[in-house]
């Protein structure tokens, strides 16, 4: 299994006092980092192999927070400006939803004080934390899932806790299925394909089309209408509108492969929109991924019989 990390694409987005220590890490360490966490007034942390570590000024990983590089208000605000290409206004829609998608498909989660208007979040002020999730292509990581599900009927639902590798597995499944079938990928947040100027920065297969930035519900409807996919791939299901669009696509013969946050299959069934999809027969099987040291590993696969109510 080969690996392609977007760590190098994230470094230029960080101010020099944060960028320099990270650039001094060993290449093997850089390639294994999955998150960079910045919290105002505290040390910069990274996640590697499921473990949290601080980065010293000399470019070493350490367990003691006091030895890490501190994050100031100025450094945090400068990072957000860099993430938004110095145009916060252009990124307001994403900021309202708590994230900004950066270079290489990396997603920066934002934590701060919500500014409310009409019962909805208008923007986020007084930023207090940024979590940079490093996108990576682990070529071959989805082969166990692919072998398991390619001959199964119906759709496949990839589930797991946050940071369990769901998007990475979906990306590799697009590559594997896209080698021989027409695949349409719904990449609402730009994380799966990391499209730049119309070109995916990851290998998604010779017959894969990417709908970049489309809201999933709209993208699904367009893809089914104009690209006649055999397989439709999207991540992080949960909204009512996208559920309606997916249910409509069932009647076109498209096979669905999607992901959802859940730590177990019973937890999947407790989510109302996922339950609707299971009851309608959209997914025949669920695949549960591990997290932490077991990130991306298949812990269980289970047939999804429709729920009787």
- Quick one: overall form? globular
Largest sheet, in brief, is: 7 strands, antiparallel
The CATH homologous superfamily of the largest domain is termed P-loop containing nucleotide triphosphate hydrolases
Number of strands: 16
Q: What's the quick description here?
A:
The chain has 309 residues and is of the alpha/beta class.
Give a verbal description of the structure:
This protein has 309 residues and is of the alpha/beta class. It has helices at 7-10, 16-23, 27-32, 73-83, 92-96, 143-149, 166-178, 216-226, 240-249, 265-269, 272-279, and strands at residues 2-5, 33-39, 45-48, 51-55, 61-62, 99-101, 107-117, 120-133, 136-139, 155-160, 183-187, 208-212, 231-234, 255-261, 283-289, 298-303. The chain folds into two domains: 2-133, Beta-Lactamase; 137-303, Rossmann fold (3-Layer(aba) Sandwich), CATH 3.40.50. Strands 5-4-3-2-8-7-6 form a seven-stranded antiparallel beta sheet. Helix 9 (240-249) links the parallel strand 13 (231-234) and strand 14 (255-261). Helix 8 (216-226) packs parallel to helix 9 and helix 9 runs parallel beside helix 11. It is globular, with a radius of gyration of 20 Å. The relative contact order is 0.12.
């Amino acid at each position: 299994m080969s690996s392609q990390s977007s760590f190098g694409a994230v470094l230029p987005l960080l101010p020099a006092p944060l960028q320099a220590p990270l650039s001094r890490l060993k290449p093997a360490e850089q390639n294994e980092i999955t998150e960079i966490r910045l919290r105002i007034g505290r040390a910069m942390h990274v996640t590697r192999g499921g473990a949290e570590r601080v980065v010293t000024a000399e470019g070493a990983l350490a367990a003691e927070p006091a030895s890490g590089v501190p994050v100031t208000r100025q450094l945090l605000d400068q990072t957000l400006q860099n993430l938004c290409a110095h145009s916060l206004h252009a990124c307001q829609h994403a900021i309202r939803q708590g994230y900004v998608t950066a270079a290489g498909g990396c997603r920066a989660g934002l934590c701060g004080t919500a500014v409310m208007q009409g019962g909805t979040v208008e923007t986020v002020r007084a930023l207090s934390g940024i979590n940079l999730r490093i996108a990576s292509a682990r070529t071959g990581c989805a082969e166990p899932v692919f072998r398991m599900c390619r001959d199964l009927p119906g759709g496949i639902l990839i589930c797991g806790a946050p940071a369990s590798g769901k998007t990475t597995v979906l990306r590799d499944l697009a590559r594997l299925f896209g080698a021989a079938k027409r695949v349409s990928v719904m990449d609402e947040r730009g994380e799966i394909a990391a499209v730049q100027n119309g070109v995916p920065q990851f290998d998604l297969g010779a017959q894969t089309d990417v709908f970049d930035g489309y809201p999933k519900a709209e993208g699904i409807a367009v893809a089914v209408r104009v690209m006649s996919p055999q397989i439709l791939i999207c991540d992080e299901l949960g909204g009512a509108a996208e559920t309606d669009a997916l249910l409509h696509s069932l009647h076109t013969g498209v096979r669905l492969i999607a992901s959802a946050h859940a730590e177990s299959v019973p937890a999947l069934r407790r989510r109302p929109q996922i339950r609707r999809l299971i009851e309608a027969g959209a997914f025949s099987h669920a695949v549960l991924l591990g997290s932490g040291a077991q990130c991306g590993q298949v812990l269980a696969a289970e047939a999804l019989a429709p729920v009787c109510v």
